[in-house]
Amino acid sequence: MHTPITYLKGAGPTRATLLKKELGLKTYADLIHFFPFRYIDRTLFFKTNELHTNNSEVQIIGQITSINTVKQKRGSRLVAKFSDEFGNIELVWFQGAKWIATKLKLKTTYVVFGKVTVFNGKFTITHPELELQSEYNKSLRTAMQPVYPSTEILGKKGVSNRVLFKMMQNLFLETKGKIKETLSLEIIDKLNLVSKKEALFNIHFPKNQEDLSKAQFRLKFEEFFYIQLQLIRKNMLHKSKFKSFKFNKVGTYFNYFYKNNLTFELTNAQKRVLKEIRNDLNTGAQMNRLLQGDVGSGKTIVALLSMLIALDNNFQTALIAPTTILASQHYESISALLLNTNIKVALLTGATKTKARRLIHETLENGELHILIGTHAILQDKVQFKNIGLAVIDEQHRFGVAQRSKMWLKNKLPPHILVMTATPIPRTLAMSVYGDLDISVIDELPPGRKDIKTVHRYDKNRLSVFKFLKDEIVKGRQVYIVYPLIQESEVMDYKDLMDGYESISRDFPRPDYQISIVHGKMKPEAKALEMERFVKRKTQIMVATTVIEVGVNIPNASVMVIESAERFGLSQLHQLRGRVGRGGEQSYCILMSSFKLSADAKLRLKTMTQTNDGFKIAEVDLQLRGPGNLMGTQQSGVLNLKIANIVKDTEILKLAREFAIDTLKKDANLNLTENNIIKNTFFKIMKTQGVWSNIS
Ligand code: ADP
Ligand code: MG
Q: For residue 371, what is the domain's CATH number?
């Protein structure tokens, strides 16, 4: 199986080199795992009244009932009417019309094959394959013709689909009997899977749809199974390898806060998640938990309560946020929550003045400071804790692995890590990307939250939108107007923003209206000042680029206008919308767009107007963009899947995960004889594809 392709009959050094360069195929094993991406099914026959425009290739039995040459601008085309007893279609030739006309026979039964399109309101096959039925019956062909992925260069150099197909045939002849089973008998039995050998054969040479489906199922399951096995095993190893502090009591800090400072009842989801965290903190193994929850679901309070548990066990904690604005907001809201307690909190960012910084260092080191909130600044080596036991990291995708691991060096043992993210990740994707982390989900919003009413308006409706904004402002509300900022055309974006700002200034003139503006080109102090004016309600309108995307909390702002909304991705739209709806008032999101919209853009905007549920939105996002563009997938293996599809094969994925968990629960090191095959395969995969970088 490790034989280089060059030794294969029909390959040779030239083709072998091409295959390596173009498709990365080196060995027999590579080639056998190079799967067709579709099949031309010649087992099915269609009737002329069964056709759809979305049929790909079809074959039909019938007779030619008339032949016409139709003059057109240049030359002519040949049109033949092809009929069966249910109706007729047209066969069309643009090239070689004259010659073909002489060959076509009336009143003779043909098998016609080709791609159906609709032309002049009729089903049409252009340049069909046409074969006399008598010949068709005699000819030897594969029922389902595999179609392999290819490249332009391969096509040009003559390595056609046919050539590949021939090579595959030779490959199977040469390797007969050498294909080893790679799943345990137990699993094969339980799921009624076909053997590896049969699966590989049928993925290349299926006789019919059923054989193909069985082969696909088996191979997809296997692919997911070994990924899940790696992830789950990594999680288990992590737990056995990385010890951390045991927080075995809940004490005064927690209880006092819960009784006196918590003004609301936790949602059931918050309670469940808190319990999961408490359990983790008490095992002696390092917690590595991802806390997912939509904007406004109340992650902060969960984080704070977890920190109080650390305090109760005589440990310090840190909360790290990606931006200064967000860190300051956390600092303010947590300080407010902790009012009238003796818990000491400090804020450390790049902007912290030397004197304050000195005090922070001192109190951190002598243990007086309980909670340090800040930005990357916390990760600097000179920031030393007396005894840190828990680090909470907000918005995880903005932090690299290396940065997170820096927290590990701040105490004798690595502190527990809780990562919070407001970007909902579809469950199946999370399983594959973060399968080695423990995941908690807050899937419930606090009661009484009103859904944000979302509408889509075209630029020509601008006047009525502005009228609406004025009505809201009269009621005392504040408004965000956001412009897209897309790196490649920063200059253009900036111009859009400034043009927008000017036109808004005209429509909302001073002194009745005051406007703040915040964008990426401003100095941090200027930005902070503008934010401040908005927070203090000195301005009613905040014109901004997406710098406000992350986390600002201004409950009085109740309208979010997103300009050129068609240029934003779904998750970004959802994040932006989450800036409003934070107070008691009904909030609104207005998506402005031009009239010309792509199908994808339409679906994005429609999805936004239909749901406020971040997880549903993430599902649509995954379907639209595929996993490659979603957060966190870049470093994972979901992009290298050979046959399984993380969007379409979710049921198989769940099944594979169940089986992987089950296998490792019974036999963590795969030492049982019945797991021998799994063990061997697993370590082989680990050795050849080290795709699983450290995520946590
Ligand atoms: P996010 O998950 O976006 O970080 P926050 O933690 O900022 O959400 O919470 C949003 C708002 O909801 C805050 O004002 C918070 O005090 C409030 N909140 C959180 N949990 C509850 C609850 N169980 N009941 C009522 N209000 C809550
Ligand atoms: Mg938050």
A: 3.40.50.300
